[in-house]
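Deliverable D5.2: sample structural annotation.
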Amino acid sequence: MILWPKAPRSIDLEKAQRISDIAHEHDVKTVGVFVDETSHEICEAHAKASLDLVQLHGEKCRRELCILPQSFETIYVCDVNDDGSILNETNSQNQKEKANWILFDRKSAGSGRSFDWTRFERPASSRWILAGGLSPENVQEALRVLDPPMIDVASGVCGPDKVRKDPEAVELFFGRIHDHVSSRKLSQD
């Protein structure tokens, strides 16, 4: 859930709380996305919206990582250039230890455009997330090339208004993931 007020897909904390309540009834974890908020603002949103994870975009939020409570599960976002090179690594050993997940997203997050997966250096850690321009049209290729442990999709399954999710695109996206995983299992047997 995007909680940065300047984003077109942003929602308020009240709506985020309602979504969290429903998600938690089905054992689904919720993620709050932050860009320029302080640790105080992140903590307040975490409590009010019953978030399970906080995703930290932007320099201000990333600097706040080490100040956040140890109990927070965090996703630290690294920006990636079009050519697949990483623009901002975790800045310190403390940040590397504190972040539960590292998410790699195209520098212009939310653009719906991907970066060059063939030139991207796949992390050694198993706690990373691929984002950036994933869609029903390219998700199988991303999985084939990088075999990420987790993926993040938003713009790639939006409808024409670029805000609301398109149920058919979401179904197609997950169907293609299922097909990829099924074909991989068959080839391993």
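Annotation notes: The chain has a mean pLDDT of 90. The two ends are 38 Å apart (CA to CA).
The annotation will be released with the project's public dataset once the embargo ends.
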